[in-house]
Amino acid sequence: MRTTIKDVARASGVSPATVSLIINQKPVSISHETKEKVYKAIKELNYRPNQLAISLVKSTTNTVGLLIPDSTNPFMANLVRRIRLKLIDLGILVITGNTDYDPSLTKKYLRAFADRRVDAIVITQLDFEKEEDVINCANIVRELDVPIISYGRDVFNISNLSTIEVDQVQIGYLATRHLLSLGHRRIGCSTGNARLDVTKLRYEGYKKALKEFDLTPDPDMIYHGQFSIESGSESLSYLLGQNATAIFAFNDLIAYGLYKSSKAYHLSIPENLSIVGVDDIPYSDIMDPPLTTIAQPMEAVADCIVDTVRKSLGGNQESIHQIYHPILKVRGSTAHV
Amino acid sequence: MRTTIKDVARASGVSPATVSLIINQKPVSISHETKEKVYKAIKELNYRPNQLAISLVKSTTNTVGLLIPDSTNPFMANLVRRIRLKLIDLGILVITGNTDYDPSLTKKYLRAFADRRVDAIVITQLDFEKEEDVINCANIVRELDVPIISYGRDVFNISNLSTIEVDQVQIGYLATRHLLSLGHRRIGCSTGNARLDVTKLRYEGYKKALKEFDLTPDPDMIYHGQFSIESGSESLSYLLGQNATAIFAFNDLIAYGLYKSSKAYHLSIPENLSIVGVDDIPYSDIMDPPLTTIAQPMEAVADCIVDTVRKSLGGNQESIHQIYHPILKVRGSTAHV
DNA sequence: TTGTAGGCGTTATCAC
DNA sequence: GTGATAACGCCTACAA
């Protein structure tokens, strides 16, 4: 049993209430003498207030829950790092949960967060393959009664939830237009998980760009994969079979997978194949050739998330909706046909 | 105010105590009838027990704190992911803290973890540049009174702390011996933060290998850097100035930095320069050429950490000391002189 | 200036 | 079978 406020009180010959007043620097005048005694006792007993007890009475935990599908994705890893660093600065801890797009794990975390009375929950790309899982999870979220801040669109259609997003249609559009402007006409898509909102939106952007060039999207040019290196690797042979001269990889990891299997095909990038990715993770400009990619403004997103968390802790009820814009970074993986 | 056990009690016409008994499936016989009533009320009121209150009386939180210097390092990211996934399976949440090797941030986190009464703290490579910070932090750790599990050696010299480590000397040895066996004699080191224990140990291994080949280590062959891509980039010109034909990068990120600046020097790897890294992060075999590296058995380490956490929650006081061995993965970045 | 008492939401020990 | 009652460790009126 650790030392409690009572121990301190006893040791310094005052009541627990007085100790509490002193610790919390309440605006009441207390004799210098007793203050000294109490501080001394605190130091000697190495007393630290039990935050559980404090949280119970104050009903605030200075803790937020953070849910993330793939924490090993460097883009996410960097985002989360920045969020954590800014939050600890405010004295707020974050409980992180990995979901791997698993609905039941997601629900488990959501409930666990709420049960622990986190002050807010940050969810990133909370979305599932199956419609039913989305609905199911949305209901849980609605019951939660905790401020929720989402990075990515509100696929749940929940009213009081703040969203911070990057224009995903624009991402697909920028990537595709860049390729089109280089003369490519058979542009393959190596997508992320097909039913996910991000995937759909990026594909929208792809179609939008094609339309601007008076081209009709060919469904055969899509490989329905996942947001992983392995998926990218697997997609190459299919897309080559469709005579793609360029591939829009739905994120940089997928692009890395394409790089990897390109070697097996003795294809050289960008001479034989142009590739553009999404996210601009830190390894993309080290790859050979450096990867052309669409960068999301990670810092701004992280800062906005933290800001929104802070506001909601401050009692702000209004939900915020912020949209950021992506940026095309042209590097060595794309060239004229 | 959320619904409490009292609300449920009132709604179902029983006492809070009874509700508690039912919820926790205590081995007491309770009439089927009241059980039904209570379950119904719970469902209708959407009642969920407040874990803060439960933790307060049970003095266990089912939460562990995890401290990590650089969560964006893919090796760490993967390790942490696995730990989280295995822990949530046991119903345990993890509060993660990024320290960036900052002593004051580390202390802040350590205290915050303890104040929140986490059941255990997992620290990874907790170590600092300055001796004084190490001592200082060690004192805090000693006062903590929480089971601590460390990935990496106990640089603190704290008695009751479990350690899970990978033989770091062996890492340096394997990397260097590989290079030596390829005929390299001027092998540069692009190190991680100089004062860190891992750095010193890997360098020990380097010296050990040289000694086996009857070579004396040349202090000029060391570039004292950091565990980052940038540091690797910066080290190249210095080490080339020392006529290095091969470089032992103290981790894969550093190796990536070397790849990056090699391009600027129009050096081709491994023809003009051999490189070996450490960690075998997922991008290393996609690099061109694929990076020869020393892999640490991440899965085994993660599993052992989780296992140790589980045991300590079970009340096990004994500290564990486990050592794993690294593995050399020969790929395309190393060749004969 | 300091102490008393009640409450935060649970669980646990006894009674009834 | 079920219900008081006292913890758990702290905060905060309200008294003194």
Fold topology:
Two copies of one chain form a homodimer.
Chain A: H1 5-12, H2 16-23, H3 32-45, H4 51-58, E1 63-68, H5 74-89, E2 93-98, H6 103-115, E3 120-124, H7 131-144, E4 148-151, E5 161-166, H8 168-181, E6 187-190, H9 197-212, E7 222-223, H10 229-241, E8 246-249, H11 252-264, E9 274-279, E10 292-295, H12 298-313, E11 321-324, E12 327-329
Parallel strand pairs in A: 1-2, 1-3, 3-4, 4-5, 5-11, 6-7, 6-8, 8-9, 9-10
Antiparallel strand pairs in A: 10-12
Helix pairs in contact in A: 1-2, 1-3, 5-12, 6-7, 8-9, 10-11
The structure holds a DNA duplex (16 and 16 nucleotides).
Oligomeric state:
homodimer
- How helical, in percent, are the residues of chain A? 40-55%
Supply the number of helical segments of chain A.
12
From N to C, what is the helix and strand string of chain A?
Answer: HHHHEHEHEHEEHEHEHEHEEHEE
Low-confidence stretches of chain A: none
Quantity of strands of chain A, as a count: 12
Using only C-alpha atoms, the radius of gyration of chain A works out to 26 Å
Question: Can you identify the CATH superfamily of the largest domain in chain A?
Answer: Response regulator
- Write down the CATH topology of the largest domain in chain A: Rossmann fold
Global shape of chain A: elongated
**What count of domains describes the coordinates of chain A?**
3
Determine the mean pLDDT of chain A.
95
| Distance between the amino and carboxyl termini of chain A | 72 Å
Q: Find the structural class of chain A using helix and strand composition.
A: alpha/beta
Main beta sheet of chain A: 6 strands, parallel
Across the major sheet of chain A, the strand order is 2-1-3-4-5-11
